[in-house]
Amino acid sequence: MAHSLNHPIRTIAIDGPAGAGKSTIGLGLARHLGFLYFDTGVMYRAVTLAALQRGIAPDDENAVSQLAENVLIEVLPPSVDDGRQYTVRLDGQDVTWAIRRPDVDAAVSVVSAFPRVRQAMVAQQRRVARDGNVVMVGRDIGTVVMPDADLKIYLDASVEARAWRRYRELESRGAPSRYADVLTSMKQRDELDTSRATSPLRPAKDAFVIDCTHMDAGETLAHAIALVEAQNAIRTGTQAQSAVATGAPENEL
Ligand code: DC
Predict the structure, then answer these.
(1) Domain 11-246, CATH 3.40.50.300 — does that match?
(2) Protein residue closest via CA to atom 4 of ligand 1
(3) CA of 113 to the centre of ligand 1 (A)
(4) Residue nearest to atom 5 of ligand 1 (CA)
(5) Predicted structure pTM score
(6) What pLDDT digit, counting tens, does each position of 157-197 carry?
(7) Which atom of ligand 1 has the smallest separation from the CA of 145?
């Protein structure tokens, strides 16, 4: 795809299924570039937690949508040095870790499928995107939130590899569960995220697909950085097109 713009990349969209490593790669890229890292999944998680806290059934579309339209969600720089990448506040309350609870995991796909919930979240995400210098991570960033993003990455991996990584992560956080259970819930989330009517998970037409099934986080980040650098060289006309840079979108790297 020919880029006629000559400014370096300012907006990066990273989409992909649960557990593909989007946050690790997104945060790594943001740090490398000095950009803001914005993980949009936390917003859907915060709405889900708000519903659970208020005793609203996650499948009560009207009540959950109304809540999403009225609740205050803030994503701020880390306020505590406890390994967090950011602080998430829900109506002023620190919910950074609470939004990772298994009951939130179980209900968030239902909540994030409601069109009014998505509309409320996307409006806030677009405000963040407008300022540029951002790496935004989610499911619909390249397709809906930032369709004009300067670079779109779709990070994929086999469901078994993603479940294994999630299993190890839970173990290291002192919350072990059975691999078979993690795999089953990963498959359920894939099904819900890809089959919903509003903004289903899919790669944007002009996304670069990176399949990291057989790559560790360091290799995947190196790939992503190489892609950014190659695209920047093309955009600013500082270098002949390289193999990575010219890889047709939707081809796996
Ligand atoms: O990335 P995550 O696991 O924290 O996302 C939580 C849920 O939110 C997941 O089920 C998909 C949904 N989500 C979404 O629908 N759109 C986004 N932009 C980000 C997340």
Answers:
(1) yes
(2) 41
(3) 10
(4) 41
(5) 0.89
(6) 999 999 999 999 888 878 778 999 999 989 988 998 899 88
(7) 18
